[in-house]
Amino acid sequence: MSNSKGRDEQLVFKGDPILIDPHDRYDNFEGWGTSLAWWAHIIGQWKDEEKMNEVIELIFDERKGLGLNIVRYNIGGGENPQIVPNTLRPGGDVPGFQPEKGKWDWEADKGQRKVLLASFEHGVTIAEAFSNSPPYWMTKSGSVTGAEDGGNNLKDEYYAGFADYLTEVVRFYKEKHGVTFRTLNPLNEPASAWWIKGNIQEGAHFSLDKQMEIIDKVAQSLQKKGLQDTTISAPDENSIDETVEMLRGYDEGTIDNLAQINTHSYNGSQLEELRKFAVEKDKRLWMSEYGTGGTESHNHNDMTSVMELAERIIFDLHMLRPAAWVYWQAVEDEGAKNNWGFIHSDFRGKESYELTKQYYAMANFSRFIRPGSSIIHTNHGRSIAAYDQKKKQLTIVVRNEYSQQEFEYDLDAFQFETRLAEVYETTLQKDLKRSELSIYKNGFKITLDEQSVTTIVIPNVEMK
After folding, report:
1. Dihedral (C-alpha) 269, 359, 58, 229: value to the nearest 10 degrees?
2. In this protein, which residues make up the domain named Endo-beta-1,6-galactanase-like (predicted)?
3. 122 and 60 in contact (C-beta within 8 Å)?
């Protein structure tokens, strides 16, 4: 509902409003992303290219979709063909480029490659390569799913060979396809002990000393091959606290080899400690993986996963202050019967897809908080703000998991002539539904539905 007097009137706050203070911010947010494992391996092989392109646009296109601009490409290890039946989940059997020692297959992984290359045509600007496991023939167990006991699975004599494998893939993409991976991560949740042979996905444990060894070997290999445009990220631990523990255990040489610190944020409490460590060591910090499925049974309109997603994003942006925030799989397997992901498709069925409620909730953030923005902290744990200097646009995203209630925002630190803001709501009944809101000279008030994620976009704004 509009109010033509809003621009000139002062809003009389009923209580203590939520303060948007542009001086409490961090700059140069790089954007939002997704890993391509495992969905791109499946969808990139669809015969219906029109349907495939629809999915790609829904994920990467800024106008038609989520506008994700970061991809993490999974360099597959390739499972042992003698293991029958193959235990890897649908999509998880990403082909390796070296099916046996001394043999290379550069035609491998066509599905993921097709999506990777198409993603750049739809807005992707940053690509990272990462590994879940070495090729099976380099492992102690003979499988990319993990060691027999959950311990180190890469044979001691293959650390240099594994580094060579990863950097050869990086060089192949650069020379053959014109793709420069800005970072290369040889690890994925390496401290975890659940990478045991027979898993449904690739995985490899690396103890602290072995993490340092493979990072050193990769650094040497990149330098030897003249791949100076690709640097190393690590350690991609499952939790914030594990990431801090590993980093504190690394020697200075290992830290020097890192250009970027990657962490997953499934759990952990040391967000501020990790942020301070990254600042102290002058390293870029990414939240490189998070995903959620909520607490309800399989349902595309599930709101519990929406609330968890919004809570995690807002909390991470407040406390961790990452340069980028990356979801795990944008597309999940419908056959898994869970609520993870923004889009569901039956990885073993027909070439079709459906959007989940998480898709719209992600759009509340990614479509409006764009790369290059400054992330502004608030005195309200359920609200985050961003200012786009180029667009002169202020964006506020708030979640409300409780009953319907009114929120008030103090914008006295900004100067604007705008009378109306755009509002986009995601609730059980609404999918990013657009409306308008009156803006006063010093702020605004808004009534939020229960179980909602709401984005308020204010144009033509200047910081005082």
Report:
1. 0
2. 18-240
3. yes
Find the farthest-apart pair of alpha carbons in the chain and give their distance in angstroms, rounded.
75
pLDDT digit string, tens, across residues 357-381 = 999 999 999 999 999 999 999 999 9
Q: Please, which residues have CB within 8 angstroms of residue 276's CB and are 6 or more apart in sequence?
A: none
Contacts 24+ apart (CB under 8 A), 9-14: 9/440, 9/441, 10/440, 10/441, 10/442, 11/408, 11/440, 11/441, 11/442, 11/443, 11/444, 11/445, 13/408, 13/410, 13/443, 14/408
C-alpha count within 13 angstroms, C-beta hemisphere, residue 228 = 1
Structural domains in the chain?
18-25+377-463 (2.60.40.1180), 30-368 (3.20.20.80)
306 token code pair: 């929406």
For helices 304-319 and 271-281, the axis angle rounded to 10 degrees is 40
Token pair for 420 = 């109306």
Q: Would you say 415 and 392 are in contact if contact means Cβ atoms under 8 Å apart?
A: no
Q: What proportion of the chain, given as a percentage, has pLDDT over 70? A: 98
CA 16/CA 32 separation, integer angstroms:
32
Label residue 15 by pLDDT band (50, 70, 90): confident
- The alpha-helical segments, DSSP class H, found in 226-339 are 240-249, 252-257, 271-281, 304-319
pLDDT bracket for residue 4 (50, 70, 90): very low
Beta pairing partners, 258? 232
Q: Each residue of 62-71: pLDDT tens digit?
A: 999 999 999 9
Are 344 and 332 a contacting pair, CB within 8 Å? yes
| Separation of alpha carbons 281 and 126, rounded Å | 22
Three-class DSSP category at 36: coil
3-state SS, residue 289: strand
Taking the C-alpha atoms of residue 29 and residue 159, their distance in angstroms, rounded to an integer, is: 35
**Distance separating alpha carbons of residues 246 and 207, to the nearest angstrom:** 9
Give the Cβ contact number of residue 298 at 10 Å.
Answer: 12
Task: Give the mean model confidence (pLDDT) for residues 435-444.
Answer: 96
User: With 80 as the cut, is the pLDDT of residue 298 above it?
Assistant: yes
